[in-house]
Write a structure and sequence with these properties.
Blueprint lengths: L2 H19 L17 H15 L34 H5 L8 H14 L1 H8 L9 H6 L16 H10 L6 H7 L3
Helix pairs in contact: 2-4, 2-7, 2-8, 7-8
Length: 180
């Protein structure tokens, strides 16, 4: 066996051993530590964000880190084959079809994936929701191209912070959705 082949085999063996030693590193780096997805408690929160933030010129755009799907903007491409959709052009430009369960789950993941470590602390009640960009930007405590969405204590703010702190009361979400 030539020297080059021996070195290659040695490198391969070292790589295998290193990989085997990394078997239990704890949670994956990109794992979101949050309550499991519950469409019942999240649907109203998502509806508020879809309406306020999910238009095609804002967070309803594929290039955005916070990407929101729903009836007011971006739709999931996979939904194109849905037998319930008659007018695809209208559907994909924010038609009347309600947000699908898959889109709702994508919205949940998108919100939590922005700052997963901070979101985990908020869900664990060891940090205030205002540590999250999604709360600070909506309150205009941080630069936000969309401007002020709501002040602390407004219905949309309470809707969002209730969900982030595990409160399942969606009354303020419904109030926010009733605003023009």
């Amino acid at each position: 066996m030539n020297t080059r082949r021996k070195v290659s085999l040695l490198c391969f063996g070292v790589t295998l051993l290193a990989a085997a030693g990394c078997g239990d590193l704890g949670p994956a780096v990109n794992e979101i530590v949050a309550p499991p997805f519950d469409p019942g408690s999240f649907r109203a929160v998502s509806a508020v964000l879809e309406r306020r933030c999910g238009t095609l010129d804002c967070h309803g755009h594929m290039a955005r880190p916070l990407r929101l799907y729903g009836q007011y903007g971006l739709r999931r491409f996979e939904e194109r084959t849905s037998p319930n959709v008659e007018n695809y052009d209208e559907y994909y430009s924010g038609g009347k079809e309600p947000t699908t369960l898959a889109e709702l789950e994508d919205n949940y993941r998108s919100i939590l994936a922005l700052e997963p470590e901070l979101a985990a602390k908020v869900f664990a009640k060891t940090a205030d929701p205002e540590v999250l960009s999604i709360v600070r930007k909506a309150r205009l405590r941080e630069k936000h191209k969309g401007g002020l969405l709501w002040n602390k204590g407004d219905p949309g703010d309470v809707c969002m912070t209730n969900w982030l702190t595990g409160n399942t009361d969606t009354t303020q979400c419904e109030v926010e959705l009733g605003h023009p």
